[in-house]
Fold this protein.
Amino acid sequence: MCTTYLCAVLMDELTGYGRVSIPRLVRLNPCIPYKTRGNGAVAFEIQLHTASYAEKVKELIKARVGELAEIHAEETNPGVVFIREESALRMPYEHLRSLQRFYELAVKDVVAIEHAFALLNELQIEYYGLKQKRGVIGALAAAAFFMLQQRYPTQYDLTYELIAYRKRERWGTPRVIDAASVWKADAATYPLTWDTVDYANKNLVLAPHSPCPVLFGVRGDRIDAIVRAYELITAEPVEREALFITNQGTDSHLILAEEMQGSLSDYHSYCLEGTVMSEPRPFEGGHVVFQLAIARSREERIDCIAYEPTKQFREIIRSLRVGDEITAYGSFKTRTLNLEKIAVRAMNLKAMRNPRCERCGKRMKSAGQAQGYRCKRCGTYRSSQELETVKRGLDEGLYEVPPVARRHIAKPLIRLRNGCSQKIHPSR
Ligand SMILES: [Zn+2]
């Protein structure tokens, strides 16, 4: 069903057995074809009041997973892992390194279920799963994120999300949220909170559209700002709330140029420097496409597409020109990059234009194919076009899709407002 809801329910139920930490919500590779929506997984730590509760707690967790999982849904393959604190604390460095690699793989790459089982066995980690148990991949990745973050707090970028859950009798009914209060909450706390609303598209983005138990979530960089925004929002009564530490809004899914090995492969997200090789062209459905030559391997060319749901971002893409040097960010599939962001690094300001008549100041007209150019008024003749410097309606720097089209894991540009060498154009 909704992994975060299951987590929130468990945390409340488990308070009788021990002290429960702030849970982690990790978003895994967003292009995995057999993912559940959002491809999220959760982890938390519980310090048991007495060691004898361990088995009881595990049984309770297994029971809830069994109850709350939408087991009939084909893509639902729940999985849980349990790591004891002693083994977590005493974990040898190589094991920690293996977990680190596993987390990176789960976020950026495609993990085979056999790989997860092999690592679970090697590290002697207890697990539980239903059906194909594919969920153990996410569970192990979330647990790894938790442990790594505790061990190396500065190495992992993180953000927060406070999620409010609906009362059970309201599930599947239209959500009651006072829009005006949400706009007010955003105005009072942005940019410490973000992706609550979409100004350009006049849309609330904090609430999902699915029949899931989530009423809405407030995302941001600081807990105090998130709580302030939450308190300003007027909505239907909630069943419970939960605050998560997350890898949302961090771009953890992107494979950078220096991390790339071999050629581009499907279901991965990249950050690619290159040169625009074709004029951007619209195609059916409101999408825009252009060809990019990748700087790293000059002969490699791919199509970059800004799809219709990316709205005004397509205008930026349409204003690119052949010869522009850019960095394209997005997920790759069948020789196509689905754009999430671009950095305009150097614009091509040169263009071949029909010559201007020195006498009249008018632009000359073509005198026919390969016939040169002639002034309509005085008949002055030139054999070829001229190279001119053109004005561009585009500014250098980073551009992104609007909040309505943003993936959970994609970093909103506003988070780069302090300490980014490039100019940022946040979409709000
Ligand atoms: Zn003339």
